[in-house]
Records
---
Amino acid sequence: MICSPPRIPNGNFRPQEVSYMEGATITIYCNSGYHFKVVSGQNTAQCTKAGWVPSPECVNVTCEPPPEIAGGKVQGVRKSKYMPGERARYQCWQGFHMTGDSTVACENGTWTKRPKCTGKSEKCGPPPVIESGDLLSFPQQEYASGATVEYKCPSLYVLKGSPTITCVGGQWTTPPVCLVACTASEEDMDRNNIELRETTKKKLYLKSGDFAEFKCKVGYKQDPASSPFRVQCVEGTLVYPHCKPGRTCTVHESDMEKNNIQLKSSLSHHSTFLYGEYIYFECRRWWHAKSSRAEEFKVQCLDGVFKYPRCHNIFG
């Protein structure tokens, strides 16, 4: 049994090979905010007759913002995403009493048990403060049941959820979050030997949820272990694909003579070409191509190999 390299969104693995024999083991490395889906402490998968066991997957273990509670609120700024182990603290409105631990923790994508605030008032305190977002009105210290407030997000951020929240029985309904944009920088792309597929910009800004497409730079080829080249911005995070160096091609005079061709002088001034680079040929004097298709004389270097066109005797 031979296993192909696995595709692991939001993660990577070592060692990286073209194929793996039965019994081979790989170690899984998940991106920040993701964990290998199997039992804690194990991060390896083995090539078996059934394929990779266990299935090499990285699952999201970040938490959504902590939920609102009646008679109280989350202290400080509510972030759009919390990492495993991060904590949040609740406080009760004035006149309410807390039972339970005021602090909750993010564990495996969920929050530990939140406290309760008990009291008789149905009024709400100041509305929650959300990360990167603002209220459209000046906050008050107290709101009557049924009162509403509205949020907005800055440019290039995406507002997720309802922009309006309501005070209901001493508890605000769930506030929205402002999802941060992603930046595809030239430095990050250079580090992964990639570039944007359809633009010459050195930097690209994407709203959360938008997609970007990448391609390998000339001289590089797609790494079999790479993540997909169509990448979605997820709350400020881009998982970059990766390319590795490809073999160069060398044009030999003897091969050109055998095929009655030469390098097109106006476009080619060297005999060594990078992976993915195009080589332009033309017929030598007194020789001609059987086909009139110009693309046959535009040949791409593919990992050290390219296919020579051939010309024929003009008198033949």
Note: The mean pLDDT is 88.
---
Amino acid sequence: MIDFSVIWFAIIVFATLMYIVMDGFDLGIGILFPFIKSTQERDVMMNTVAPVWDGNETWLVLGGAGLYGAFPLAYAVIADALAIPLTLMLIGLIFRGVAFEFRFKATEAHRGFWDKSFIGGSLLATFSQGVAVGAMLNGFPVKDRTFAGSAMDWLTPFTLFCGLGLVIAYALLGCTWLIMKTEHGLHKKMSSLTTPLLCLLLVVVGAISLWTPYAHDAIAHRWFSVPNIFWFLPVPVLVLACAWGIMRAVKREAHYSPFLLTLGLIFLGFSGLGISIWPNIIPPSITIWAAASPPQSQAFMLVGSLLIIPVILGYTLWSYYVFRGKTRIGEGYH
């Protein structure tokens, strides 16, 4: 018998990972804006993602809709427990999206306001996403299939630290994206920022990797029990290998490999989250099967998803192919 819950969990994980990767680097560009003062260079930074940024958020919609339809209990609990950070995330995305369009049409007197909106929206959306991830690791109390905590349970030192960590991760992703997409002075500036951001990210990842099992006995048992520890050991080894590869690539002034290796780092971090909570979709105790909608509903939704996901992948790949190559001063989508 087909296990639709596992299939839908895989679809939601895939959509979330695609969103983190694709929207991560354009949020990272907003986080990096304060490091660049030149208006022309800021224009180039935005033009590297201007043709594709709004399509990137399709994956967020797909993941949210899939969660609502396939795991309604998880959607209800998460929406209730994380109402404040998710609302802040949406406000940040709105400000960032409006700033994208208005900045190019604004007069010089007003452009500074939209630059600040772009920076603030990017930081707020990213930090809120990191807080939500940290809260997921902490888990949610559920009683009678209803969230049993308070509206501020998400506000802990661990979740705030996770928010800071995701800001650094997206900044590194945006930095290496700009290394791939720009040239001359801006390329050199991003190359010089990459190593400090990478070192900060490794410190944050190390701290979270120690903090998580210390705070959660179940996760500690999963990570360090035999034979699990032998299965999970490649993850930190690969993280260090990717970090070493990024440093070498930046040193030899490579264009593509820093971004590709950073994608590897993001994937490894995301896999660590999945390893920590599987098979729960509402940690610490609600599994994907307990939170699932009826198999008939999941099967009905799957038919539509198998049609729409290839379409989304197709137009995403096509748009990135059309706008491939370097973005130069004077060139622009708008």
Note: The domain at 4-322 is CATH 1.20.1630 (Formate dehydrogenase/DMSO reductase fold).
---
Amino acid sequence: MLRVLALILILTGVPLQTAAAPPDVDVELMLAVDISGSMDMIEARVQRSGYVEALRHPDFVNAVEGGQHGRIAIGYFEWAGLVNEASVVGWHVIENASDADAFAAKIEARPLGTRRATSISNAIIFGSRLIETNDFSGARRILDISGDGPNNTGPPVLPARAEALARGIIINGLAILIRPSASMSPLDQYFADCVIGGPGSFVIPVHEPEDFAIAIRQKLILEVSGLPARLPIQPAATSTDCFMGEKLRPGFLDRVYPELDR
């Protein structure tokens, strides 16, 4: 009967509904790493080594192996005002320590440098596209963004975030507060209110260079394991201005977004 019904539907032009593919990895995880010019080479180097060390750490490997499928899909790219497409380390499947080491080695081998401006929105758009177009079916899909400043160029961050969340992509953050600016709201609060989103999303602040490796390892383990993050950000006394980065560039908002109500 099912075959007859399918044939009738085909002949009458009624589209068949295809069931979603079951997950083949526990998580699709894309790492989007800030290399904007506000980070000096020492910070950029510490950040890079933090990712490499975290990916090779036994606790990360144990989290991967302890998942329902025991495998994840992971990728990496660097961004500033624009995404450095040459920095993309494409999707890799990690199932064991050897896989994790091979992926870390590709990141470690990349040339290290910084670029101008900070566009979290471009990072979200680019990372979401990489997640949407891969060949995996993950139980969860996560875009993990590090950053040491608010969005100050490119599209507004809120619509970029909303589009990613509408596609079922979770956004987590690593807020780099090594050199916080007194003229702006705390960056971890900005990330919480303007950048991250989705079920179980979280932001981890980094206050000292020596905290990088531990913070990165912590967030990777949380993302891979799916465990809830117990990292509450206290509610701000006033609402966070999600245009605070753009407002540091006189006339930028009026030139680029004249239609926006700010």
Note: The beta strands are 25-34, 72-79, 83-94, 138-147, 170-176, 203-206.
